[in-house]
From TrEMBL:
Residues 36-142 form the WSC domain. Transmembrane segments: none annotated. GO terms for cellular component: plasma membrane. It comes from Colletotrichum kahawae. This is WSC domain-containing protein. Residues 1-25 form the signal peptide. The keyword Ubl conjugation does not apply. It is found in: Membrane. PANTHER family: KREMEN PROTEIN (PTHR24269), PROTEIN SLG1 (PTHR24269:SF16). It is a single-pass membrane protein. InterPro entries: Kremen_rcpt, WSC_carb-bd. Its main location: membrane.
Length: 166
């Protein structure tokens, strides 16, 4: 009888251990509050795919790994990819709770997964999904955002020329 109770206890513990990550993954929200970037989905990282020369899904851009101090959030990554470097990047991706990746393109080898596959919370906001192990929560800059910036510079230049000509 004690043996049966022990087996049931161990089985319950194993079941709880297996279901706990699923429960926490389902409670994570997807950040959607950016004016410039729109959520595209959860994508696999491509460094572990055969014949890819370990090229990342968001390659040839900028990246930053934040310390384990609770500072990494999706808005911080989006800000970094938008104006934290000399380049404004089209794509931003968060991976494994504290990694931020920026690029002008998303690899065609990156496959869109179910959103629940990006089940790691951000280090700085435990309620929001920040990718996962070899999984990226990907955001893409909306085309109007880049045009507004270019249009603003044209207007500034035109205004400057108008003032100089008088």
């Amino acid at each position: 009888m004690a043996r049966n109770m022990l087996i049931q206890l161990v089985a319950s513990f194993i079941l709880l251990a297996l279901l706990s990550p699923l429960a926490s993954a389902q409670s994570l929200s997807i950040y959607q509050d950016s004016d410039k970037y729109k959520y595209q989905g959860c994508f696999n990282e491509t460094v572990d795919l055969a014949d890819t020369a370990k090229v990342r899904a968001l390659a040839d851009g900028a990246s930053k790994t934040y310390p384990v101090d609770g500072s990494m959030t999706v808005p911080i990554c989006l800000s970094f990819c938008n104006n934290g470097t000399d380049t404004q990047y089209k794509y931003a991706g968060v991976e494994y709770s504290r990694e931020c990746w920026c690029s002008q393109r998303l690899s065609s080898l990156a496959t869109k997964l179910d959103d629940t596959a990006c089940n790691t919370p951000c280090d700085g906001n435990r309620d929001v999904a920040c990718g996962g192990a070899l999984k990226l929560s990907v955001y893409m800059m909306q085309s109007g955002s880049a045009r507004v910036t270019a249009t603003a510079w044209v207007l500034v230049l035109a205004g400057t020329l108008a003032v100089v000509s008088f």
